[in-house]
Design goal:
Shape: globular
Helix content: 40-55%
Largest sheet: 7 strands, parallel
Number of helices: 9
Strand content: 15-25%
Length: 276
């Protein structure tokens, strides 16, 4: 028996990295998962990995910034698995510049993916959750505790040079989380945030100045961190190292289990003891 047996989860940006590990973790505990990625192949690979381990999953491919994505994402859960219990807003990327060099396009793109997209997904989920609660109450059945976990960053709790757009979006997630916790408490939904520190992903493991890039909706963006800077950052972490995507997923999982049913409107820092 898994701790999430019978639950249905949607996880944005779960074809790769932290999102993939979140999807795998939830599925390993019994949740049926709707996997999302901008590209079809990574999403299919995550679905295949879940199915190979005996779980259930489907893919919902596309950009979370598309106007109709929220409705499509939520509907995928309803159509394939009959409901929605867990929402993980994870999708995102960085596009850094100091503020005097940051363009409106950079600002808007990062705010759209990290803040507007979660807003739209949650807005689309509200009618589904409200209807399910109303149905349970009418039948005299207990209303299960549903879960929302929004992914943030320590850039959103303490700021980070070169990331005015990303830091602002992630700070905004905190406000969204606290507001939804108050609005959705009546539905027995907990809404929390996990803010990551230094986690090893394709965005951080590639060396700065190299050839590593990511393709986002027709834009090719360079990624990477200066190795000396990365080493210095790891020394600042009390645990002495960067976290792994699996460990990051574990922090998210804590907010999805029954033991956290009375925890809401909180931000959990997952950074090995480091805080800014």
């Amino acid at each position: 028996m898994g701790t999430l047996d019978g639950k249905v989860a949607i996880v944005s940006g779960s074809g790769r990295g932290i999102g993939r590990e979140i999807a795998l973790k939830l599925a390993s505990e019994g949740a049926k998962v709707v996997v999302n990625d901008l590209d079809a192949d990574p999403a299919k690979e995550t679905v295949a990995a879940i199915e190979a381990a005996g779980g259930q999953a489907v893919s919902c491919v596309g950009s979370v910034t598309d106007v109709d994505f929220g409705e499509r994402f939520v509907q995928a859960a309803v159509d394939n698995f009959g409901g929605l219990d867990i929402i993980i807003n994870n999708a995102g990327y960085t596009w850094d510049s100091v503020i005097q060099k940051m363009t409106d396009e950079q600002w808007d793109a990062i705010l759209d993916v990290h803040l507007k997209a979660p807003f739209r997904i949650l807005r689309a989920a509200q009618p589904v959750i409200a209807a399910a609660v109303k149905k349970a109450k009418a039948a005299g059945e207990p209303v299960p505790c549903r879960k929302v976990v929004n992914i943030s960053s320590m850039a959103g709790t303490g700021g980070n040079a070169g990331q005015a757009n990303y830091s602002s979006a992630k700070a905004g997630i905190t406000g969204l989380t606290k507001t939804l916790a108050k609005e959705w408490g009546r539905y027995n939904v907990t809404v929390n945030t996990v803010a990551f520190g230094l986690i090893k992903t394709r965005l951080t493991e590639a060396p700065a100045g190299g050839d590593s890039t990511i393709d986002i909706e027709g834009k090719t963006l360079k990624v990477g961190v200066n190795p000396d800077l990365l080493a210095a950052m790891e020394q600042m972490v009390p645990l002495g190292r960067a976290g792994t995507p699996t460990e990051a997923a574990g922090a998210v999982y804590l907010f999805c289990i029954p033991e956290s049913n009375y925890v809401s409107a909180q931000t959990l820092l997952c950074g090995g003891g480091f805080n800014i």
